[in-house]
Design brief:
By secondary structure, this protein is an alpha/beta fold. Helix content is 17%, strand content 37%. The longest helix is centred in the first third of the chain and has 21 residues. It binds copper (II) ion. The site of copper (II) ion (CU) has 7 residues, from loops.
Length: 124
């Protein structure tokens, strides 16, 4: 007799579910919001290499460097710029003032491939 009530409830429940999917869940993957004018430079280390051989950045732009390890325990240091990042200290704000080429190297004794674990930061 009241079958239409059931289907109305089911319809409302489905609509609510869709609403939750559409509005609630996609919040999570949001990238963290950077202050205006700041750019993100992600550096990911795995066993004995960085995710890129060369990182290109613009001189005079403020960057937030975000370091993470995808495999093993590594660090990322740019000696000339006073940058030393690792799991305990994964972010640093840096403005690359002078165009040039800087060497990025692993700063934690991570094993056999440690000495060759290098990449280049190119500031232009
Ligand atoms: Cu290392």
């Amino acid at each position: 007799m009241y079958k239409w009530i059931m289907s109305a409830i089911v319809t409302v429940a489905c609509a609510f579910g869709v609403y939750l999917l559409a509005s609630g869940l996609p919040e999570k993957p949001h990238e963290e919001v950077l202050p205006e004018g700041q750019e993100l430079l992600k550096i990911t280390a795995s066993n004995f290499e960085f995710d890129q051989k060369e990182y290109h950045v613009k001189a005079g732009t403020k960057y937030r460097i975000k370091f993470s390890n995808s495999l093993g325990k590594h660090g990322a240091a740019i000696k000339d710029l006073g940058i030393d990042l690792n799991e305990n200290n994964p972010t640093q704000e840096v403005t690359f003032d002078k165009p040039g080429t800087y060497e990025l190297h692993c700063s934690i004794m991570c094993g056999q491939g440690h000495a060759g674990m290098k990449a280049t930061i190119i500031v232009s």
